[in-house]
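From the pipeline queue, job 12 of 40. The input is one protein chain; the requested action is below.

Action: predict structure.
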Amino acid sequence: MKIVADESVDKQIVDRLRADGHDVLFVAELAPSIDDEKVLGHSRQESAILLTADKDFGELVFRQHLLHSGVVLIRLAGLTPDLKADLVSRTFDKHGDELGAVFAVLSKHTLRLRKQPEWIDPKSSNGLDEKPAL
């Protein structure tokens, strides 16, 4: 799977995803300090899922309505980088096919998936789908 990891993502997570066989572009290695809109645009141009720990991407997606090809927001405060890497790895392994074109929030026990507003089915609960993280 193709992933763009924002510079807010722990290096251990990037290393683990690469070891798992994912094609990971790490912003901290390629273009540190570029603004969030450029990061989001680059991931969309590459048809890659954006992996981030920065809540500002929610603002770009839901308030500014910027398009994306999938965003995974990591909310794993209090865990060691190695535990975060393990949880992110298992999430991509188990739910990877569901992460394209959704805004996902990964917490310790839950993976929330939200479709982009224009794709929300009016019969659904506002496009929100919660699943156990593992």
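Job complete. The chain has one domain: 2-116.
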